[in-house]
Amino acid sequence: MHLEFFPSRTLTLYLARLFVTRILAVLFMLVLVLQVLDLLGESGDILAHPGNGQMQLLYYVSLRIPQLVARFLPYSVLLATIITLATLNQNSEVISMKAAGLSAHQVLAPLILSALVISVASFAFNERVVTRATSTLDAWEAVDYGAIPEDASPKANLYLADGPELLLAQSLSGEGRAMTLNGVTYYRRDANDMIVEQMRAARATYANPGWTLERPVKFDVASTTTSQLASARVAPGITPAKIFISKVDPDAQDIAALGGSIAAVREAGRRTSELDAAWWHKLSGPLSSALMPLLGAVAAFGLARSGALLIRAVIGMALGFAYFVFDNAALAMGNFGGYPPLVAAWAPFLLFALIGETVLIRTEE
């Protein structure tokens, strides 16, 4: 019987249903509270743009909720695991299952299977919904919650250098030679890297080479004078290809698009460690939900009357949150080359899978 992970179909469905309903309830409460707090912080900026009102606030919520769901789903699975197992333990249901011959792994199997299904659904949700919502929200924030250009790019707040010249842009639209920069600021520096000239323009179009600023306002530092120009061509060394590889947002691209961006950046001779780690984390991140039942399993076992149930629940919660801390730390190490990208994305998952299995075996099996 110990080799059969699902000895009872009725029991499997009962545990899975109990677990999934609690995941959804915890996730709903977390997203609701966090969305309200986030909206309170952003509503002022959204409404500050002329013409924005209730519909724009609802539009912001529709773009922000997918991000919150993706980020806090693993936390919801962890909390739901502890709530479910602690309740079963307190009601002596775990004791009944073990008295019927079920092992600790058999008790957890329906929860782990449910979490695996949720991980697959989370991956699909991230790829199809979250990336698009992130891309649109980035483009909207880049224009200060104004009208989003139809061909807006998720690249925003660009900072580009061409020798002594600096070119900054709030956002861009179009591709290739049809690319347009919006909210442009240009700086020209001398041999000592001191700014000697500044120009601001609403738009800049690619002139091959360089960029043509439309009706820029020029400020000369030496004479402290301001003048209006009809147009000006600047930064001949900055090309659309250079802009494309200058700022790749992994959160705004699906796994296939990110792979293409990584290849383009690598061909340009630039470092891709951060992007490689983000690519692998698109797989290991959703799969972390399947790890939570194993880390929270310590709350399921032990006599509730012994008074240690709360301590066990706290230990399970500590193991789960320790995983998220190590996961973020490993990604940070991978971003600046401390860890190889594959290790940065998968090492915390494998480490805590071994820790959870070791705790389970030593305490219950």
From TrEMBL:
Coiled coil: none annotated. The keyword Acetylation does not apply. This is LPS export ABC transporter permease LptG. It is a multi-pass membrane protein. The chain crosses the membrane at residues 12-37, 68-86, 107-125, 309-326, 338-361. Keywords: Cell membrane, Membrane, Transmembrane, Transmembrane helix. The keyword Transmembrane applies. The gene is lptG. It is found in: Cell membrane.
